[in-house]
Amino acid sequence: MKRTLSQKKVIFKNRFHLSVILAALLIILALLLIFPFKNLLSALYFQRYKEMQRDEKPLDNQIGYLYQSINVNPYNPQYFDELAKLFFVSHETELTSLNSEAALREVSQRSSFIHHPYYSKLFNLPSISSNTPVYGLMPISAHLQSIELNPFNADNYLKLGLLLSNILSEDQIDTLLKQAVNLEPQNIYIHYAIGNRHLWSQEIKEALDEFKQVLEIAAKQRTHTFIDIYLPKIMSQSFLLINDVELIKEIIPHYYYCYLRFAQFLAEKKMPIDAKEYFYKAYEIAPKDKKQGILLSLARQLARFKEWNELIKIVHTYEGIKTDNKNSSRFNILLIQACYNQGEYEKTIRTADNALLLQPSNSSLYYYQGLSYSRLSQYMKAIHAFEKAVAYAPHNPYMHISLANAYQSTGEMQKALDEWQDVLSISSADKRYENLTNQAINQIIKIKSELSRSKRRN
Hints:
With about 450 residues, the chain is an all-alpha fold. The chain has helices spanning about 5-55, 60-70, 75-90, 100-110, 115-125, 135-150, 155-165, 170-185, 190-200, 205-220, 225-240, 245-250, 255-270, 275-285, 290-305, 310-320, 330-340, 345-360, 365-375, 380-390, 395-410, 415-430, 435-455. Among the domains are: about 35-185, Tetratricopeptide repeat domain (Serine Threonine Protein Phosphatase 5, Tetratricopeptide repeat); about 185-285; about 395-458, no CATH class. Helix content is about 75%, strand content about 0%. α9 (about 190-200) runs parallel beside α11. The longest helix is centred in the N-terminal third of the chain and has 50 residues, at about 5-55. The chain is elongated and about 145 Å long. It starts with a helix and ends with a helix.
């Protein structure tokens, strides 16, 4: 039976549609097969790169495998982040000898990732010369690509802003950092970077506003680590560049740990501000379970600066709030130290006796007892106390020195000589005490001379 023309057209049309559908299915199937294969292949190259990095193979070998990962799968921002890191450290290698044009040619031959608009714009900037080192340009290009693939990652803008500091204009860098902080307003690192830029531009108020945000974010997150890291940095840089102490104090947020670290910083750096005010402020606003620790920190600073009357008051405050004996031994030592330095030798001995009930093997308690007995000319009791101190701290030369002096006071010169020889042995073996070596040698010579003269007389 002969088909009509219209029937032939219908059959042809149906076959064409079927062919199109089959072709589409084949393409989809191929894509489904190819993309996982490409991802797998790029992942294998990347794994090989990591192995080369771990084994500290030459940088060129590492770069080669990373480029292969990017060529197979140019849509993974992680690869570009790694490339940025790799080129950033490459300034210590032969790559530094390449200028930007040579670097472009080499990278063009090995990878296609640079052919995107961000990279082209970057190299058309008049601020980039042909002598710009490759370790400045390659990380930038990688971060540009990473931003293109993931425009909502604030860290990319921050890193790029920092890397461009020697290449782009100030306004362009500030724009990148503003983009970063708009995307991620609670990012401490970004605020700190912006604050630094303001500070070094002598825009003091703007810098302190950014630093205040750093600390306020850290305080809200109750993140002591950030405060420990950034507060000292902020204070150091601020004091270095400006003298307006009152302005600097304004940035401390109302969180006890910020006041505590600020007070510790002031005390450690001997800044022209009374640190006690901020210790007390930290104590005032701290939760109950943190107050003992703050008092202990304040007490240690008072001992360091020999403010003994204030230290004794702090110890009494501690006695009034303590709920257990967790910190009692530390406060006892500080109180004993304060009493001794105030000349209250009998009180020092009594306090040490009470403290020894809690810590019978604490060498410092015996040491201060011995010093107090010596001051009261009770040398036999002093010797007994110092012998205990030496027994519990045999590697502390100051314990041996005190015992040697006590022996000399009672005329036991041979025993004193033995102790000074121990001091010499310790100071010769431990660099921390090498300043005692000459003192020990002089005392040994002196005592041996006295023993020799005594022997001749006898």
